[in-house]
Amino acid sequence: xxxxxxxxxxxxxxxxxxxxxxxxxxxxxxxxxxxxxxxxxxxxxxxxxxxxxxxxxxxxxxxxxxxxxxxxxxxxxxxxxxxxxxxxxxxxxxxxxxxxxxxxxxxxxxxxxxxxxxxxxxxxxxxxxxxxxxxxxxxxxxxxxxxxxxxxxxxxxxxxxxxxxxxxxxxxxxxxxxxx
Length: 180
Hints:
The chain is of the alpha+beta class. It is built from three helices and eleven strands; from the N terminus they run E-E-E-E-H-H-E-E-E-E-H-E-E-E.
């Protein structure tokens, strides 16, 4: 990833990534833009519950956006990756549900800074993909957007790096299968 300023933002040039499916454990909530932190607050609970079972989390936590209606509500999931699909007979901890992030091609960039800059970085990534004729895995029929897979992957632990201007977040948006 070459660093440069694009779309007026200091972000690495977006790239295309091919990803395999990724098992995870997540907690889904319906929130508003004002209450989105409520779902992000579930991440330490998920990590703690897995640690109590002796399971290490093999990668950074994420938020997965399923449905976005900016004027009203968002359906968002806080998740942590798993090394293998959930196979325990017991129910997952704290109302979490196991799942798998879908395999496929993703458009991606990295945002460094406070979370309030993520909306602009995401909009820039969307414009970048659109400018290249890439079709997103997105259903916009009706008044809300339903995403195949839209992720914010948190590379920085705020407890270890309290300066939010240094937080690193990877943005990933799954592209549609097949020709554009």
